Amino acid sequence: MKQRPLSPHLQVYRPQITSVLSILHRITGAGLTGGLLLLGWGIWSLSHSAEAYQCFTECMAHPLGKLVTIGFIWALCYHLLNGIRHLFWDAGLGFKMAAVNASGWVTVIASFVLTAVFACLYFY
User: Fold this and answer.
1) pLDDT above 90 coverage of the chain, percent
2) What is the mean pLDDT of residues 42-49?
3) Residues 40/93, Cβ–Cβ less than 8 Å
4) CA 124 to CA 108: how far, in whole Å?
5) Which residue from 16, 67, 82, 118 has the highest number of Cβ atoms inside 10 Å of its Cβ?
6) Is 80 exceeded by the pLDDT of residue 8?
7) Which DSSP letter does residue 11 get?
8) Smallest Cα–Cα separation from 72: which of 104, 108, 27?
9) Is the predicted pLDDT of residue 2 greater than 80, yes or no?
10) Per-residue DSSP letters for 84-99?
């Protein structure tokens, strides 16, 4: 008996911007949960003791902490902009394929631009 795939999957379909952005929206939503845990740690450490807050700030000042912070900022910007895009869809706007593709690319590019702006404001 031959082993066949149950349905055409990655072998047949190529990624489209709509599917990639949908997957990214779900991933950034999960990532924001982790970022909120870090934010909670920061608030807890601030209210707990000076030593706890110093530990938190040292962790966030580490290059890996900075990378996590930038990732959190990007996830927040992307998730917000894609959510606004979905609000327009809920209003019945932007369903033509050209508008869907354009708004998708605007979302991605604007999320990186906003991340750069907020990261510059945060780190400098």
Assistant:
1) 85
2) 96
3) no
4) 24
5) 82
6) no
7) T
8) 27
9) no
10) HHHHHHHTT---SHHH
